[in-house]
Design brief:
With 249 residues, the chain is α/β, with parallel strands linked by helices. The strands form 2 sheets. The chain has a 6-stranded mixed beta sheet, sandwiched between helices. A two-stranded antiparallel sheet has the order 5-6. Helix 2 packs parallel to helix 4 and helix 3 crosses helix 5. The longest helix is centred in the C-terminal third of the chain and has 26 residues. The chain is globular and about 45 Å long.
Length: 249
């Protein structure tokens, strides 16, 4: 699979943001970043970005108590690495949710983990990561702090099927996910959605994303309360907690 293959009373709907405009938000404002991907190969319209735009129109609901930001990422390994790093350094979201398209899928898949190696397929610029690795020397697998199985059990949107996955496909979306899990202390998620169709228009996919991400935010809150895995690192704790980034399989 792959791009290849809540403290405030409401959620303000926001346009997409350019990386140069990313900046740290005041501590009292909680931000959730949702990204989709641009065109690749024969897919001139990427359902992931179309669904994210629909989600932006809907928002996360008046009771979600989190600021929603959306961002389009290119299907480009090198550019993604730069942008994901900036997301976590500058925006510091409560949760980053990356949406990818799996053109062969019929269901929506919640990916539990990101993988470090075996990235052999070229991106839109013909580039392949050296040695097929995302982060040389990094852990082979990083698992999200969000329990995707728990989210799957609670999501029920008519006309859609939501399933659990442990293999995100080793393309740019899996690469993005691994980096985001690494930089975000496990506070990231990846959702693979099918291509647009009469059965699954962008409007329905946007609604499903709203339901799923709300559940993910609840799971993320439970993880924060239970183990503090997503706690922002302070200078006095950074060296002590660096080894706890993500949950390894």
């Amino acid at each position: 699979m792959g791009a290849a293959g809540p403290s405030h009373s409401g959620c303000r709907k926001q346009p997409s943001i350019d990386i140069p405009s990313l900046q740290a938000w005041p501590e009292q404002i909680r931000v959730s970043l949702v990204s989709g991907f641009g065109p690749f190969r024969q897919h001139l319209v990427n359902s992931s970005w179309e669904a994210v735009k629909e989600l932006s129109k809907l928002g996360l609901g008046s009771d979600a108590e989190v600021e929603l930001k959306i961002l389009q990422l290119p299907v480009d390994y090198r550019e993604v690495k730069l942008r994901v790093t900036r997301i976590w350094e500058d925006l510091q979201p409560q949760l980053a949710v990356h949406i990818g398209m799996d053109a062969s899928a019929k269901a929506i898949f919640l990916e539990q983990c990101g993988k470090n190696r075996s990235y052999r397929d070229a991106d839109i610029r013909g580039f392949r990561p050296e040695g097929g690795a995302c982060l040389p020397g990094g852990p082979e697998v990083i698992t999200s702090a969000v329990s995707m199985k728990a989210v799957c059990r609670r999501v029920n949107v008519e006309g859609t099927e939501v399933a659990f996955s442990r293999d995100a496909g080793r393309y740019v979306c899996d690469y993005t996910y691994y980096l985001s899990l690494h930089h975000g202390n496990g506070c990231a998620a990846l959702i693979h959605i099918p291509a647009l169709s009469h059965r699954l228009p962008a409007s329905l996919l946007g609604k499903v994303l709203q339901v799923i991400i709300r559940e993910m935010l609840e799971e993320n809150e439970a993880a924060r309360a239970g183990s503090l895995v997503c706690r922002k690192l302070s200078p006095s704790h950074s060296s002590q907690e660096e080894s706890n980034r993500g949950l390894l399989l």
